[in-house]
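Project outcomes to date are best conveyed with an example. Our students and postdoctoral researchers have been running inverse folding experiments weekly, and each run begins with a structure described purely in tokens. The record below, which covers 328 residues, was selected by the lab manager from last quarter's runs and is presented without edits.
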């Protein structure tokens, strides 16, 4: 079908990423006797500080995450969470919990001599952002969150047991393939046993299947190059081990609704929530619940997007939000 004038207007009026930039500063910060995290800074060193929280957990940061903020107005800070990306030791699960990561964010803020900053995160990054903001509400100026995820059992089961697999039965079959038939009813526990104790080749096979399942389901439009990148062994090992470690422990939260119950702690913080209407990784229901708990927030449901940060409508909503908050 040929788009009409209104369709063309919607498409051409969308914002895109800012141009690629390179870090002005990189460093390694020791955060425990075991872990050292990689961090980088881009943009204007005198600009408004923002910390970017990547997803997974275990995905690491990437160059695209530098481009949602105006580099003339923002001091853009990225880091790789424990065990992934350029942080060390690689794929390490010891001393690796949500609350260790919350502490790391605060150590990085102190190290960089920042009084308070914008917190920007998507998917697992939204979980970590909420946990950090509720722990340190005076250190957060505003928030932009995408693909809301509370690490609840319901959300985890939706993606790994009974939900997304109904929409992607062929891809879900591939996800289950490394598991014995008897283990497929509880795939996360079965994967955890392999990823933490299997033979090296068995671990690699499982890690690739785990990671590629997510790569296959991120966006409305298929992206074979992304699936291939998710299947690269070095990326997949850290991603699958750390993600499975967090999910088998339900995010290390005492109660699965804790982030919602504690939402009032950040009611004063300006917040924009962005979620794709057709997000099958973190369905829009969680974004809706967060918005109901924080009625002062802005909720943007992108009508033609899934989960991926790179989808045009998601990019538009994120860049629009960061531009609006640039002067806060």
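After processing, the design step wrote out the following sequence:
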């Amino acid at each position: 079908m040929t788009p009409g004038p209104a369709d063309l207007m919607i498409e051409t009026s969308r914002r895109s990423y800012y141009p690629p930039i390179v870090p002005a500063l990189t460093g390694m910060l020791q955060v425990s006797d075991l872990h050292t995290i990689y961090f980088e800074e881009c943009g204007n060193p005198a600009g408004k500080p923002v910390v970017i929280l990547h997803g997974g957990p275990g995905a690491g940061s990437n160059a695209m995450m530098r481009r949602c903020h105006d580099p003339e107005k923002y001091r853009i800070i990225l880091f790789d969470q424990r065990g992934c990306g350029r942080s060390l030791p690689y794929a390490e699960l010891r001393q690796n919990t949500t609350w260790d990561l919350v502490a790391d964010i605060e150590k990085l803020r102190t190290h960089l001599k920042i009084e308070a900053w914008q917190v920007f995160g998507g998917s697992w990054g939204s979980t970590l952002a909420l946990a950090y903001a509720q722990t340190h509400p005076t250190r957060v100026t505003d928030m932009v969150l995408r693909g809301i995820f509370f690490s609840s059992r319901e959300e985890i089961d939706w993606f790994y047991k009974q939900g997304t697999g109904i929409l992607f039965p062929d891809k879900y079959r591939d996800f289950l393939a490394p598991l014995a038939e008897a283990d497929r009813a509880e795939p996360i526990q079965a994967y955890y046993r392999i990823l933490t104790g299997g033979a090296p080749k068995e671990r690699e096979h499982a890690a690739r299947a785990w990671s590629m399942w997510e790569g296959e389901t991120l966006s409305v439009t298929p992206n074979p190059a992304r699936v291939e990148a998710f299947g690269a062994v070095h990326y997949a090992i850290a991603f699958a081990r750390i993600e499975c470690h967090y999910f088998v422990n339900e995010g290390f939260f005492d109660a699965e609704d804790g982030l919602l119950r504690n939402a009032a702690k950040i009611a004063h913080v300006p917040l924009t929530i962005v979620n794709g209407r057709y997000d099958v990784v973190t369905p829009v229901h969680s974004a809706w619940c967060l918005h109901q708990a924080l009625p002062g927030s802005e909720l943007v449901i992108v009508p033609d997007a899934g989960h991926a940060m790179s989808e045009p409508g998601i990019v538009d909503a994120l860049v629009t939000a960061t531009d609006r908050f640039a002067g806060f």
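The longest strand covers residues 36-43. The chain has two domains: 5-151+253-325, 154-251. The training component of this project remains on track.
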